[in-house]
Amino acid sequence: MSLPVETEVRKILEPFNGSIRNVLDKAFKDFIKKGGANIYKRTDSADQFDAVIRAAIAEFTNTPGVVIFPTGSTARFLFGGKVLVRFKKASRKGRGSNIPTGANDNFLDPSIPFGDAPQAMKVEICWKVNELGTGYDSVHVTARNGDGKLWSYELPGGKQGVIEFPKVAAPQQPRRRSVAKLKDSAKGKKKGGEAS
User: Fold this and answer.
1) In terms of Cα–Cα distance, which of 44, 43, 83 is closest to 65?
2) Which of 12, 78, 96, 106 could form a disulfide with 124 if both were Cys (CB 3.0 to 4.6 A apart)?
């Protein structure tokens, strides 16, 4: 197992930067289509995470240079045979928001190799949710050392794509015929044009 080296990770992920952004854009579009905004933020987080993993698996299936490991508590993606990635929602500190579990602790410890790719450098792709919870403000690639952060950089690729909210058609109002009666100004006039 090798310690993640930022320059190497950047070089390996660079050809996939656009695809990674596509994953997040599609995931949030799908989240909004489902109605988004649940009562509890933790439900939103779970729905967003599920949408991201589904979009990532769809995006990278049969992509040369990418191997998907879909089992366990989260899918992991091996890029270029050297960088093992998992997608995570970012915490306030910009790191992956994680529940402490054995699998999580193993992933965050760079000295513990991943069984299916023991030489891979492990990193997280973290998205920071916007204030409305309808998309993301930024995406970072982050290398961790347990609870600490070894390094992090913002993923190039521009801003989030525009998310269109589902259009709800207004119910069509039945057409009514309305007849307006206009006051007849000729009534009540005397000859010569003077009103009485």
Assistant:
1) 83
2) 96
